[in-house]
Write a structure and sequence with these properties.
This protein is mainly α and 112 residues long. The chain has 4 helices and no strands.
C-alpha cells in the first residue's frame, strides 16, 4: 500500500471533522437560554486533571483485577522434572552432544 493511499483518507477524515465542527463551535446560544455561572480557571484544571487521574486509577484497578485472576504458567525446574521421570541426569551429562565429531569409539577406553 502506498503512502498516498494512506494519507488521502486520513486527510479527508480530519478535514471533514474540522469543516463539520466549525458551525457547532460558534457561540450561537439563544437569548432565552440561561447562561448560568462559568467555572473558574482552577475549577477547569481540577476537572481535567482530576478526571484524568480518576480514569487512570480506574484503568489500573481493572488491569490489576484481571492480572490477579489469571493463572500464569510457571514451568517446573529441571531438577524436579528429572526426578519425576526417573531420569538419570548424570548419564545425560556423560553423553556426547548430538552431531559431535569424535575420533573414539563408544566402547573405547579414553584413559589411555
Amino acid at each position: 500500500m502506498s503512502l498516498a493511499r494512506v494519507i488521502t483518507p486520513v486527510t479527508a477524515a480530519l478535514l471533514a471533522v474540522v469543516v463539520f465542527a466549525t458551525p457547532a463551535s460558534a457561540d450561537t446560544a439563544p437569548d432565552t437560554w440561561d447562561q448560568g455561572e462559568t467555572l473558574s480557571w482552577l475549577e477547569w484544571v481540577a476537572i481535567f486533571i482530576g478526571g484524568t487521574l480518576v480514569l487512570a486509577v480506574v484503568i489500573a484497578l481493572i488491569a490489576a483485577a484481571i492480572n490477579t485472576k489469571s493463572k500464569h504458567y510457571v514451568p517446573p525446574t529441571p531438577a524436579e522434572e528429572a526426578t519425576k521421570a526417573d531420569h538419570d541426569i548424570e548419564a545425560t551429562h556423560r553423553m556426547p552432544l548430538p552431531g559431535a565429531a569424535t575420533d573414539t569409539k563408544p566402547d573405547a577406553d579414553t584413559t589411555k
